[in-house]
Write a structure and sequence with these properties.
The structure holds two protein chains of two kinds. Chain A is an alpha/beta fold. Chain A has 13 helices and eight strands. The model of chain B has no long low-confidence stretch (mean pLDDT 93). Chains A and B meet through helix 1, helix 2, helix 3, helix 4 and helix 8 of A and helix 1, helix 14, helix 17, helix 18 and helix 19 of B.
């Protein structure tokens, strides 16, 4: 029996429990029985990207220890999945490198798992909206996603999948960049929003909450009514599975 | 002006941002069309090999270049730093009684502030690359490695030219180009000295390679009686065959051409019986911090062929243009080599002014992992006690707070409670976020605790 873990990510834990619930409900509908581990809350990326390798190392090592018992680890975030898959083996202490490599090899971003492990056919539902798809820099450049997110949304009845004219153009979140250089970060969000408005999208969807909070937060501040959904939330709504909250 | 101020100034300049976005998009679109992606990747691998080999054998190849060039009658000089390079060039200029100088584009000359030194010594210096000429008239530094004046609009350029002409020059491309051509043609003919940069140094043959689309580098290196090429030591490649592999990537990546209009292959001065050419050719090989990068984890950055593609693709450069970087080299390559050449303390926040999106690496014709180098520089900065030091405490606290399930639950609850009972309580980063974006709600109980309470 494959033991599957959901690594919720600290953003889901702290700011979007609904995405965690949606992910678990969708996985269950797809026939994937996942559990949420006791410990291991952060992959260490915020500290890592800010140049604090020691703090990042500790968090990464705790994540590795908590995730090691599992055969597959699903992550509803391109950036956290990329961190776990690509960075932690080199980051952790030498004696933990083997464990980290094992965990890295078993970690999958949510959409990757659905598409590459043959669950795409079970994505069925209705979502009759104009949906603009934002693949994060991590999901596209580091996890090599080229069209998987579009494919998943495209499975839904009535969905019009829209692409950004400059799909590779970063939304400007960049983790701590968003507060180190806030005006620049917001200007970059505005550039994406110009495209969203020109595309007349009703919904913005992404596999990454960081990007979503950033662009959605800007849209809300500008009084715009475009909905911003994590792919798990969108699928839960389309597939008619309950979305619970605290 | 500090980095933040320069960024703010750029963000407030909508004319600049429109001009920059227009130019970089034009470059990127043209570049993507030259060859299909598979061929581009194959060429990229070959160019990387050529440059990697060159960087790994840099000292020997420079020596070989110097020997070959000297055999042909070129005079080769070594400059350890900018001051030395300026002294050498000034010395040569004064030796030949030079009064007027024409220059073709050279980022290395900007790096060592050569023009100012020549002018202070009483010489007149005219930039002959159209973009460099424009920024020279505007008393500004170049804002892009390949297109120095992409931040300028047609109207702004017409104003600058009209002031020189003493009469209105129309804004259309033909009128602007014609004015520049006529004005600069006179400068070429009257100049005592031509100073160029160099795109590549071929060690096998002792050749200096200078490319241009306007032909100005051709004029600079042949019309005046003396020619000096100022070239960074990192420009060396091993063989004649290597040259084709890097030239095609340079043209492809910088302007989306198959080859630049002019490729000057300079091997020697004029011989008796030659119709034209300079009486003497000098090459000043500039180190200025480059050899210090050899043998370090940053060695790869010396492979740069100065194509500007990373500037064109960068989502940050697109918003702020080149001047905001406050350095000769801007964009992603500038953010990396500026601290490497000048030390991290020069601009400690520069490596942080990036989202690490990786587009620069993806587009780099020699595959430099610029995003990784930025990350390593951040670690260097924080280790030396610079940068955003307040964060060190925050990340330590985060590590503690996430240490056990119990601590995690408590921390999240405490944060949410504080938000509710003291509505104006916001940690600093959240306050900063809130300037322009709505802040997401904080869960009172972390997700996994909520999940557990659901009985699953």
């Amino acid at each position: 029996m494959t033991k599957v873990a959901l690594f919720p990510t600290c953003l889901v834990e702290l700011t979007a429990a609904r995405v965690g619930f949606a992910t678990m409900e969708v996985l269950q509908r797809l026939g994937i029985n996942a559990e949420v581990p006791e410990a291991g809350f952060c992959c260490g990326q915020p500290a890592f990207n800010s140049g604090y390798r020691d703090e990042a190392r500790h968090m990464a090592e705790e994540a590795v220890a908590a995730l090691l018992p599992y055969d597959a680890i699903l992550v509803p975030s391109g950036s956290c999945a990329a961190m776990l898959r690509l960075e932690i083996p080199a980051l952790v202490a030498p004696e933990r490198q083997e464990a980290a490599t094992v965990v890295a090899g078993r970690t999958f971003e949510l959409v990757d798992y659905i598409v590459r492990k043959g669950y795409l056919d079970r994505i069925q539902g209705r979502f009759a909206h104009r949906v603009m798809v934002h693949g994060s820099c991590h999901a596209t450049r580091w996890l090599g996603q080229r069209g998987e997110l579009e494919e998943v949304v495209g499975r839904l009845d009535g969905a019009t999948v829209l692409a950004f004219p400059h799909p590779g153009l970063c939304c400007g979140f960049g983790g701590t960049f968003s507060v180190h250089f806030p005006e620049l970060s917001v200007a970059m969000a505005d550039a994406k929003i110009t495209d969203i408005l020109e595309g007349e999208a009703e919904v913005l969807v992404s596999g990454d909450l960081g990007c979503l909070h950033h662009v959605a937060g800007r849209m809300a501040a500008r009084g715009l009514t475009v909905r911003a959904l994590h792919i798990a939330e969108l699928l839960a709504e389309a597939m008619g599975v309950g979305v619970h909250g605290a | 002006m500090a980095l933040q101020e320069r960024i703010d100034k750029a963000l407030a300049d909508s004319v600049l941002r429109a001009a920059v976005a227009y130019s970089v998009d034009a470059h990127s679109i043209a570049s993507a069309r030259v060859v299909p992606p598979e061929i581009r990747q194959a060429w990229r691998a070959e160019a990387r090999q050529v440059r990697m080999h060159a960087v790994r054998h840099l000292p020997e190849l420079i020596e070989q270049f110097a020997d070959r060039a000297t055999e042909h009658g070129v005079q080769v000089h070594f400059a350890g730093d900018g001051a030395e390079a300026r002294d050498i060039i000034l010395g040569l200029a004064q030796q030949h009684g030079v009064r007027s100088v024409v220059k073709s584009k050279s980022m290395a000359s900007e790096e060592i502030e050569l023009t100012q030194a020549l002018e202070q010594a009483g010489m007149s210096v005219v930039e002959t690359d159209l973009g460099e000429y424009i920024v020279q008239l505007a008393h500004e530094p170049p804002s892009h490695i390949v297109g120095p004046a992409i931040h300028k609009t047609r109207q702004q350029i017409a104003e600058l030219f009209s002031a020189v002409a003493g009469e209105p020059i129309a804004e259309d491309t033909v009128s602007l180009a014609r004015f520049a051509q006529r004005h600069l043609r006179r400068q070429f003919q009257e100049a005592d000295l031509g100073i160029s940069g160099g795109n590549f140094l071929v060690a096998e043959t002792g050749t200096v390679v200078v490319v241009s689309n306007e032909g100005n580098a051709r004029m600079v290196s042949t019309v005046a009686p003396h020619h000096i090429a100022l070239v960074g030591v990192d420009k060396v490649i091993a063989t004649w065959e290597d040259l084709g592999k890097v030239l095609r990537m340079l043209a492809l990546a910088s302007t989306g051409q198959k080859i630049t209009v002019y490729v000057s292959l300079i091997t020697r001065p004029k011989h008796p019986g030659d119709l034209d050419g300079p009486e003497d050719v000098h090459v000043v090989l500039l180190d200025n911090g480059r050899s210090g990068i050899l043998g370090t984890p940053y060695e790869e950055t010396l492979m740069c062929i100065r194509c500007g593609a990373c500037l064109d693709i960068c989502p940050v450069y697109r918003q702020i243009g080149g001047h905001a970087y406050g350095s000769v080299y801007s964009g992603p390559i500038g953010a990396v080599i500026t601290p490497l050449l000048k030390g991290v303390s020069a601009q400690p926040e520069l490596p942080f002014a990036s989202t690490l999106c990786g587009a620069c690496w993806e587009v780099c014709p020699v595959g430099i992992h610029l995003h990784e180098h930025l990350l390593h520089l951040r670690a260097d900065v924080t280790r030396s006690g610079l940068g955003f030091q307040r964060e060190r405490l925050a990340f330590r606290a985060m590590r503690y707070a996430l240490g056990t399930p119990g601590r995690f639950r408590f921390s999240v609850g405490a944060l949410a409670f504080a938000r509710r009972s003291m509505p104006s309580f916001l940690p600093e980063p959240v306050k900063i976020w809130a300037r322009g974006r709505v802040v997401p709600d904080i869960e009172s109980v972390p997700f996994r605790e909520q999940w557990r309470r659901r009985g699953r």
